[in-house]
Write a structure and sequence with these properties.
The protein is mostly helical and 199 residues long. The protein contains 11 helices and 2 strands, in the order ααααααααβααβα. The protein has a single domain, classed as Hypothetical protein, domain 2 (Endonuclease III, domain 1). The protein is globular, with a radius of gyration of 17 Å. It starts with 13 loop residues before the first helix and ends with a helix.
Length: 199
């Protein structure tokens, strides 16, 4: 039987294949990487992941290398620059949500040792939720977990993080392992977590 990787990664674009092979589903424990993937998932809403990967370098440059404290200080001039920047997705609601979320995180960090990454992992007791999808059609657009986290984030003031966006974000962070059963990367993600996770 021929081993089949996740179908969505086989669209003929190298950056999509590379993302699947080296990032998607591998556990993330870094705060700025968590925020980067939040930005990308917010920007992806209504668009293809291929579009986002094509603009990934543009996002990194436009959003100050994803430094949360820096983004939290953006003023009206910075916002206007973003909305005129052809290297990113120029959607006002998305840009405003990203800056607002950075400001909220900066406030939390100023008053406590809050970690968005740690908070998200706490919903699965710090252990990846490994799905048993057989085909891409089995994959969920959202789940009870993503709905719960979306509600809790909204209560805290985070914006543009509905259940579908959160589901994709959790998968990108490796909190949910959604590789299909025949994909060899699935086990690599499991092994990566076992090797790198520390309390």
């Amino acid at each position: 039987m021929r081993i089949k990787q996740c179908e969505w990664s086989q669209n003929g674009h190298q950056n999509m294949a590379d993302y699947h092979q080296n990032e998607w589903g591998f556990a993330v424990f870094d705060e700025e990487k968590t925020f980067e993937l939040m930005i990308l998932e917010i920007m992806r809403a209504g668009l293809s992941w291929q579009t986002i990967l094509n603009k990934r370098l543009g996002f990194q440059k436009a959003f100050s290398n994803y430094r949360i404290q820096k983004i939290a200080q953006y003023n009206d001039y910075d916002m206007e620059k973003l909305l005129k920047n052809p290297a990113i997705v120029r959607n006002k609601r998305k840009v405003e949500a990203i800056v607002s979320n950075a400001q909220l995180l900066a406030q939390k960090n100023a008053t406590s040792e809050f970690s968005l990454n740690t908070y998200l992992w706490s919903f699965v007791d710090d252990k990846p939720l490994v799905m048993d999808y057989q085909t891409q059609e089995d994959m969920q657009g959202f789940s009870e977990l993503s709905k719960k986290i979306s509600r809790e984030l909204k209560k805290q003031g985070f914006k543009f993080l509905g259940p579908t966006i959160v589901q994709s974000w959790l998968e990108a962070l490796g909190i949910i392992n959604s590789h299909v059963e025949t994909c060899p990367i699935k086990q690599q993600c499991i092994d990566f977590f076992a090797k790198n996770y520390t309390l």
